[in-house]
Specification:
mainly alpha; 2 domains; PHBA_efflux_AaeB/fusaric-R
């Protein structure tokens, strides 16, 4: 039962079918994606997205230039990094950037106060930096929901401790300024993306689910032949179906962050969407079991 809930049975079956294929068979060439969206010059959402990002950057630039505080220039960089077309994805990126920057700043502060005074050569420095970079790389290779924390943590730590390549760094002001800049940029971006043309993924979530269910129906219609080309086509759609269900789950998580929506309607949409995803996976599992039973009976 636990394996079924984790979708391990379908994954194992797909891997077994992949192992039965001839590795010397050339893959089917993939279609080249277009360099520009078809509605690039007609959809106003692109222009609104650019204007919102520009407005957030302009506010931050005007602020740190007006107060003559160059150290918080990371606020403008934050506006560019966390910029996403939808409110939920922007909030998600803001949380990840703030969390990574906070962890990196704490590590840089402890490193500067407790470790840096005891280092005498480059070898000792590398031995101290290696575990921190290893931790950041380990976090960066995790799921999309938390991977950016590792990248941001290492970047913040490196900017604070390795900026002076010709000697040790003892200035704690840089650590403070970079952290404050990230906080300011996050707040400005949150205000802009919430109140200026907020774009929600709640409208596109049903379309995303419809696409996943369409792939499910295509998987059930394709005959499972032993011919290599047909088997590859089936497995490509099957793997794409798993990715589509995962993408729908991630979109549900982003919609949950869109606080500008009505709380009851948002919760109802997420609950029903998760029900559709769960039933779609159950249907795929039942279809596999039915097919295997029919094959066993000959």
């Amino acid at each position: 039962m636990a394996a079924r809930e984790c979708n391990l049975e379908n994954i194992c079956q797909t891997l077994l079918q992949l192992g039965q294929m001839d590795p010397n068979t050339p893959p089917t060439p993939a279609a080249k994606p277009p360099s520009m969206a078809a509605d690039a010059f007609t959809n106003p959402d692109y222009m609104r997205y650019a204007v919102k990002t520009l407005l957030a950057c302009l506010i931050c630039y005007t602020f740190y230039s007006g107060v003559d505080w160059e150290g918080i220039h990371t606020c403008m960089l934050t506006c560019v990094i966390v910029a996403n077309p939808n409110v939920g994805s922007s909030y998600q990126k803001m949380v990840l950037r703030f969390g990574g920057a906070f962890c990196g700043a704490i590590l840089a502060l402890l490193f500067t106060l407790l470790v840096m005074p005891w280092l005498d050569n480059i070898v000792e420095l590398l031995f101290v930096l290696a575990p921190i970079f290893l931790l950041g790389a380990w976090i960066a290779t995790s799921s999309e929901r938390s991977s950016y924390i590792g990248t941001q943590m290492v970047v913040t730590f490196a900017l604070a401790t390795l900026e002076n390549v010709f000697g040790p760094v003892y200035d704690l002001v840089e650590i403070r300024d970079h952290a404050l800049g990230i906080i300011i940029g996050t707040v400005v971006s949150a205000v802009i993306y919430t109140f200026v043309w907020p774009e929600s993924e709640a409208r596109t979530l049903p379309q995303k689910l419809a696409g996943a269910l369409g792939m499910l129906s295509k998987v059930m219609r394709i005959p499972r032949q032993q011919e290599v080309t047909a088997l590859r086509t089936y497995l490509q759609i099957r793997i794409g179906l798993h990715a589509a269900f995962n993408a729908c789950e991630e979109m549900c998580q982003r919609v949950a962050l869109e606080r500008q929506l009505d709380s009851e309607e948002r919760a109802l949409l997420i609950e029903r969407s998760q029900t559709v995803i769960r039933q779609g996976r159950d249907l795929l599992h039942a279809w596999d079991a039915t097919w295997n039973s029919a094959q066993a009976l000959g």
